Amino acid sequence: MVLTEERPNLLRPGHAACAGCGLATGMKLVLQAMGPRTIAVIVPSCEGAIGGVYPYTAYGVPTIHSAFEIAAPTAAGIANGLKVQGITDIQVLAFAGDGGTFDIGLQALSGVAKNNDDIIYVCLDNEGYMNTGIQVSSSTPSFAWTGTTPKGNPRRKKNIMEIMAAHYNPYSATATIGFPRDLQQKITKAKGIRGTKFIHMLVPCPTGWRTPSDISPELSVLAVETNIFPLYEVEDGKRYTINHQPRRLPVREYLSRQGRFRHLKEEEIEQIQRDADEEWKKLRYRAGLSG
Hints:
The structure is a single chain. The protein is built from eleven helices and eight strands. It has an eight-stranded mixed beta sheet with strand order 2-1-3-4-6-5-7-8, with helices on both faces. The chain has helices spanning about 20-35, 45-50, 70-85, 100-105, 105-115, 160-165, 180-190, 205-210, 215-225, 250-255, 265-285; strands at about 40, 65, 90-95, 120-125, 170-175, 195-200, 230-235, 240. With about 290 residues, the protein is an alpha/beta fold. It has one domain (about 5-285): 3-Layer(aba) Sandwich (Rossmann fold), CATH 3.40.50.
């Protein structure tokens, strides 16, 4: 695996992301692993805004700005167009946020996965509709503050990885900016697989998470080490591989660093801990591990 710093930077300096934006860091790492022989699709969201204003762009690869809900089929159309022309050395990459993946774009993504179209789909998950005012999404964690859940989100976060596994697509994986080598290895692996590949990437948002702009990578690491966001792969919807054995830190260490959880009661923190422990137990079972 070529080291990150030795790869070209295909998200150019001068982009319009907020200071400390985990999404911009994630896109930079993904594009480095993808390389210049890539066509990208973005949608109206943070990734649509940070690229810059026409005719200028921070993106170093050809990039199509599609509609909010159709990142996946837009990418699939491009991929099939390349296939018809006999072009095999260009990869097609779709970027969408959690709103465009968990919610508005879920039906379209499901259709592409059902057809097993040859794309890499990266969900940039900052756990809310951050670009339009920090509204709740299906990816927002339990009890988290958003502009539309000022007393805390009453619902648990949707398990998008299990939804993708139910499609039996060839490859899905979780990733975070706090583990850049793991992320880029998964992108490189996805490039070598034909069919629909799905990467669920946690990308902290200082604005929406109410955090300092310099701790996004640290929060990504804590999300993994507390089992809030385990790192694993699912192949063909049935073979699970856990990529990192977490330190099993208390979830409190992750929650306490974020203003969106500042209002939590002790019983809510305990519930989040129980939920994380339950999901880790399920994941270990699916990966063929015991205990």
